Amino acid sequence: MKVAVAGCCHGALDKMYETLELLQRRHNVRPDLLLCCGDFQAVRNEADLRCMAVPAKYRHMQTFYRYYSGEKKAPVLTVFIGGNHEASNHLQELPYGGWVAPNIYYLGYAGVVRFRGVRIGGISGIFKSHDYRKGHFECPPYNQQTIRSAYHVRNIEVFKLKQLKRPIDIFMSHDWPRSIYHYGNKKQLLKMKSFFRQEVESNTLGSPAASELLQHLKPTYWFSAHLHVKFAAFMQHETNSKDELPKATKFLALDKCLPHRDFLQIIDVEHDPNAGDSLEYDAEWIAVLKATNSLVNVTQSSWNMPEKNGLHAKWDYSVTEEAIKEVLEELNNDLKIPCNFTLTAACYDPSKPQKNMEPVHTINPQTTEFCAQFGLTDINDRIQQAKEEGSGRGECEEEEEEEMDSTGSAEEPSEYNTDNSGLSSFNPDEIMLDDEGGDEDLSTCSVDRSPDHPAEFSTSFSDIRIMPDSMAVSSDDAMDSNNEELEKSGGSKQVEEKSLTERSLKRIGGDENGNSGVKKIKRRNQAIYAAEDEDK
What we know:
The chain is of the alpha/beta class. It has one domain (2-390). Helices cover 23% and strands 13% of the residues. The chain contains 16 helices and 16 strands. It has helices at residues 13-27, 46-49, 64-69, 88-92, 129-132, 146-149, 155-161, 186-192, 197-201, 208-217, 283-291, 321-330, 365-374, 379-389, 476-488, 526-529; strands spanning 2-6, 33-36, 78-80, 98-101, 104-106, 110-115, 118-123, 170-173, 221-224, 231-236, 248-253, 264-268, 279-281, 430-432, 464-467, 521-525. The chain has a 7-stranded mixed beta sheet. A 7-stranded mixed beta sheet has the order 10-11-9-8-7-6-13. Strand 6 and strand 7 (118-123) form a beta hairpin. The chain is globular. This is DBR1 enzyme.
């Protein structure tokens, strides 16, 4: 089947879906599934905008609300993970995943689903060591710290994913797995993004947690976004025994959404022709959620996951075939995810703006139903109980702790050397969250309604690439010498100029947008929010 993979969407759903429709009209290529690697921005109303970690002047409504209200419907099944610029209050309603709109499914903090027999996993957010060992304690209304920490990856999600034994076909993360740049054309990457050099040379660019998952899960494909540059790599995994078959992962990072280059990729993925067209639960993942339910933590206290170090009675939470069979029996062998989308907030009305709308902590019926069905803890319900009982600080209390820099917290040392999944060097193409001379007032927001008649996107259609099954990528050394040859031979010509034939990932494109992170610098390109600053 054909799978479309998009980088940072930034709420521009109309543009993304219109591009897919243009692809079908011009070249008779229709994806069966669309995957988005974070910064999806499922913003329903003005309150959601205030829960998105960007300066107020960059909070724009975009077009998701039209799909949430039912005015429009996604023309293709869309599955996405969260990034570091999201309506965190909305996504927090669905910690185990769920529908944010008809035909648009969020994978949750971490999740695994199946579509046509293809096993798809993902983890939301970005890595920060000072929050990694905490529980999911945040809830709206957020303060200046928690509006950021809400999207930071937690160790419990990584631990759950590491319990999986069955093969994963596709995995998504927002930030890149650390060290993946050593398995692709590093020379070309640094040519496009010279400010990555320090982190690449010191091997600190990317997420160490994602790298750990990459080595454990060894998926066939791994897709990421976040750094706003297209990059391909091929990683051959080491085998643990003589009997184990060699495995390799084809990695691809996508650029941000239109009109920028390389935001969308089409690949062919082997699937089960006898499988249905519905999105399905993954039985092993459900069994893992049940097995690890006792580990759920909704406090700010830092704690480590169980490991074989003599301190824990149990450290292996992987599940047996019998446990998986029990899940199947509970579902009567019907793994279809119910289409139980429910409106949980008022939808933005362009004719009646409500700039003073306050975000509230909401318990989503989808999560309630999911937890009841499988005997799981409703994280938001637990947070609400903690607030009411006063048994924990919770996310709603005002914290006076200062924003930590990329070295992490001295009081709560990380198990990793550094915590930055982006860059510590200065990137002139980024914006600072406090670029107005201080922290943004979360009580303000700017609503910029998208035009009813978007511009013609045919000029951007050339940014789509069709990719073959193999996605064959040579090693770093080989690619360094090959890439210049590809450029000279027109390997980066637009789709308008060439037929949609199979292409190797040897071509690695990108524009001059990138990502870096010094203290309080977030991985968001200013051009995303200000059209006049967009790349030419």
